[in-house]
DNA sequence: AACAATCAATTAATTTTATTCATACATAAA
DNA sequence: TTTATGTATGAATAAAATTAATTGATTGTT
């Protein structure tokens, strides 16, 4: 039978490079691991490593088991962690994933009243997922997803929690700053500064520039909002961000929001979770807190 | 440590209703299970069942562990099965999921040349998923999904494999049978027969009737294609199906296809898989076989 | 109310399994 | 060569899981 220890050994040998090193981190002897795996190999009737000299190279079966280990072991650790929290009377950890940069600013405002209302629930925020936010939900990496891009599929529950307007941000001294709105053409001589994501995922691109067939003069990417806004303020380029975010910073930094197009660009942020979980009280409460967030 | 046996016991007690019965199916004694779980409870410092008289009712922790068991145990069994197949020189089993009724007819035509080309790969077709096709892909229930409804998300790879036209099917003696196409209004006095799925997922509804604000006189659902066509032939109603499917049956059953609207309804079937898997040779080959299918 | 049947818990004995120790063997580097 | 470092193996040992036998509790039946 394939046991947890086998997966642990396989994962650790992959990480450490040798049985001996793996044995140390697992607090066992090299001999113990060798015996364990040998027995498993006999049961499965297939080798897990090719023994080349004194190094171990995983066979096809070994590679497959490594993938299984990397997938399954975290699920078991998570289960133990959850149970530990149950035992201590805590409610658990709400693991929130985020797929968009402005979501982070919004989330901060929601998390703080939530933590007050639910003192025995911890909140953990993750931003990188191997298989994207949806995959992270399905794979139990996270329990909740904040995204501009919902997915109405069986097994998942999404609801909009926050409407905002995406606007152009320019320096307060920029010639566009006084206009009530900009047309796509007016950006063809501007430098566009965005977060480092696929260009197709940027609203200003696929909802504004792309339909008009316009390209900005150049395109720079910057990780952090603060630096991005500093760049905009010093007239190195223009950016597209939520209006509320721009207004929040406008006191400190010399920037101004400008509506994108005659109608503006309306956006929504959605909160999603596994359908099976939406009745867990502390999760349900997060939806409520999110809906009644102060915006 | 939470071990496989613990999860197996918890799942089996849930299924069988008692420790004694679970012990039998697990080929152990009731005492063994009792000891195992008791030890686990001590380690986790939480009860798994409430002992009420002589019956066991899962606690919150128990319910949580049951969910973990139902999720994790199949992954381990699958891994063992895969390894067994590796060991025997077989390539494995390609587990294909399907989300649409006409896909099945199409799939049959693809599977047969594939099985010939890959004699050491088995194909298994599943049609019901707890969390939908996407969830089944992410949850390793299936390796490949046939769907009219692709999802371009990180972690998944989709490609179109088959274009077809969705047409109205009527009895050969029906007054619409001679028309070159039908307008939505002409269906307002017809009985519409469909597969038993959500009405919003039906193309004839959301792409044809809905936009025109038309409702059919009545709506019946039928599971099987053959019976559905028999019903249509005997003038009990009209249906919407792929043109190629209608033409295939038209020799045996007195039915006729009619184009939906002036432009017709164009449809595509997509094949999807986990990105991590698309380089597995026998999986890649299925994509190729599918693309070059005889349509 | 008494009785049999059913089920889980417990203790002690036993069996099985995992682990270590000591050592052999193989390889790469000095 | 020699040395250092790695894995494999057999026998001994420690640890663990499992069983057998029994108790106590509960449920259903007569």
Automatic annotation (TrEMBL), chains A, B:
A Gene Ontology biological process annotation? methionine biosynthetic process
Q: Which SUPFAM superfamilies match?
A: Periplasmic binding protein-like II (SSF53850), Winged helix' DNA-binding domain (SSF46785)
Kindly state which keywords UniProt assigns to this record, in alphabetical order: Activator, Amino-acid biosynthesis, Cytoplasm, DNA-binding, Methionine biosynthesis, Repressor, Transcription, Transcription regulation
Q: Which CDD domains does the record associate with it?
A: PBP2_MetR
HTH lysR-type domain boundaries: 1-59
Keyword Repressor appears in the UniProt entry: yes
Subcellular location per UniProt equals: Cytoplasm
Q: Does the keyword Amino-acid biosynthesis apply?
A: yes
Q: Which residues does UniProt assign to the signal peptide?
A: none
Q: Which GO terms describe its cellular component?
A: cytoplasm
Molecular function terms from GO = DNA-binding transcription factor activity; transcription cis-regulatory region binding
What Gene3D superfamilies has UniProt attached to this entry?
Periplasmic binding protein-like II (3.40.190.10), Winged helix-like DNA-binding domain superfamily/Winged helix DNA-binding domain (1.10.10.10)
Q: Do you know which Pfam families this protein is assigned to?
A: HTH_1, LysR_substrate
- PANTHER family with a match to the protein in the record: HTH-TYPE TRANSCRIPTIONAL REGULATOR, HTH-TYPE TRANSCRIPTIONAL REGULATOR METR
- Family to which the UniProt record says this protein belongs: Belongs to the LysR transcriptional regulatory family.
Q: What is the protein named? A: HTH-type transcriptional regulator MetR
Protein's organism? Methylotenera oryzisoli
């Amino acid at each position: 039978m394939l046991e947890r220890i086998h997966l642990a050994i396989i994962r650790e040998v992959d990480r450490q490079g040798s049985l001996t090193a793996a044995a140390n981190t697992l607090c066992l002897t090299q001999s113990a691991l060798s015996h364990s795996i040998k027995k498993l190999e006999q049961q499965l009737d297939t080798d897990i490593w090719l023994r080349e000299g004194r190094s171990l190279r995983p066979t096809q079966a070994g590679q497959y088991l490594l993938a299984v280990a990397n997938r399954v072991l975290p699920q078991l650790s998570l289960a133990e962690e959850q149970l530990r929290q149950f035992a201590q009377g805590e409610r658990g950890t709400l693991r929130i994933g985020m797929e968009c940069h402005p979501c982070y600013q919004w989330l901060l405002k929601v998390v703080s009243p939530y933590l007050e209302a639910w003192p025995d629930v911890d909140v953990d925020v993750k931003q990188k997922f191997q298989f994207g936010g949806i995959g992270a939900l399905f794979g139990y990496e996270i329990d909740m997803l904040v995204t501009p891009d919902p997915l109405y599929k069986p097994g998942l529950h999404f609801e909009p929690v926050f409407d905002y307007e995406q606007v152009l941000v320019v320096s307060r001294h920029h010639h566009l700053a006084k206009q009530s709105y900009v047309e796509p053409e007016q950006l063809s001589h501007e430098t566009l500064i965005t977060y480092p994501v696929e260009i197709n995922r940027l609203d200003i691109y696929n909802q504004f520039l792309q339909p008009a067939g316009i390209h900005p003069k150049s395109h720079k990417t910057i990780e952090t909002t603060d630096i991005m806004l500093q760049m905009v303020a010093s007239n190195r380029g223009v950016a597209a961000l939520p209006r509320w975010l721009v207004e929040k910073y406008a006191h400190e930094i010399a920037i101004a929001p400008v509506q994108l197009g005659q109608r503006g660009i309306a956006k929504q942020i959605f909160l999603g979770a596994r359908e099976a979980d939406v009745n867990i009280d502390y999760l349900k409460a997060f939806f409520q807190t999110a809906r009644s967030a102060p915006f």
